[in-house]
């Protein structure tokens, strides 16, 4: 019986240390622990969202073909963050690495206090949508029933997001 693969879209972010090197290490650990990285967006430099008095972020979206469940992907992503030295001090605070599960195939998942997919704030955040649009423009948001491209065109977030 063939293994079933799901495409998971992850958003990586870092605003401390050697940001691009940390993102590369995170991608390598995603490959080793979650699945085959099939697409990577460019790097995007973004002002901090939510808590703005901190260094700018580097963000990158990746597509991962995986046989894991969404919850297993989340747990592995959290373990990768920890391995790379992430310390959770405050909500939206500065961080060495952040790995968010944005989409998981066409699934809608709501496990209270644990996991919501699609990411409930993705459509409001340019720093998520710009890199995601680069690698998944025709993917459909399973709740809004719009393509990533359509959502990105209509986003009202005015945070500066620069493609590097």
UniProtKB/TrEMBL annotation:
Pathway: Cofactor biosynthesis; tetrahydrofolate biosynthesis; 2-amino-4-hydroxy-6-hydroxymethyl-7,8-dihydropteridine diphosphate from 7,8-dihydroneopterin triphosphate: step 4/4. InterPro entries: Hppk, Hppk_sf. Pfam families: HPPK (PF01288). Its EC number is 2.7.6.3. Residues 91-102 form the 7,8-dihydro-6-hydroxymethylpterin-pyrophosphokinase domain. One of its GO terms (biological process) is tetrahydrofolate biosynthetic process. One of its GO terms (molecular function) is ATP binding. Keywords: ATP-binding, Folate biosynthesis, Kinase, Nucleotide-binding, Transferase. The keyword ATP-binding applies. Belongs to the HPPK family. Catalyzes the transfer of pyrophosphate from adenosine triphosphate (ATP) to 6-hydroxymethyl-7,8-dihydropterin, an enzymatic step in folate biosynthesis pathway. This is 2-amino-4-hydroxy-6-hydroxymethyldihydropteridine pyrophosphokinase. It comes from Pedobacter paludis.
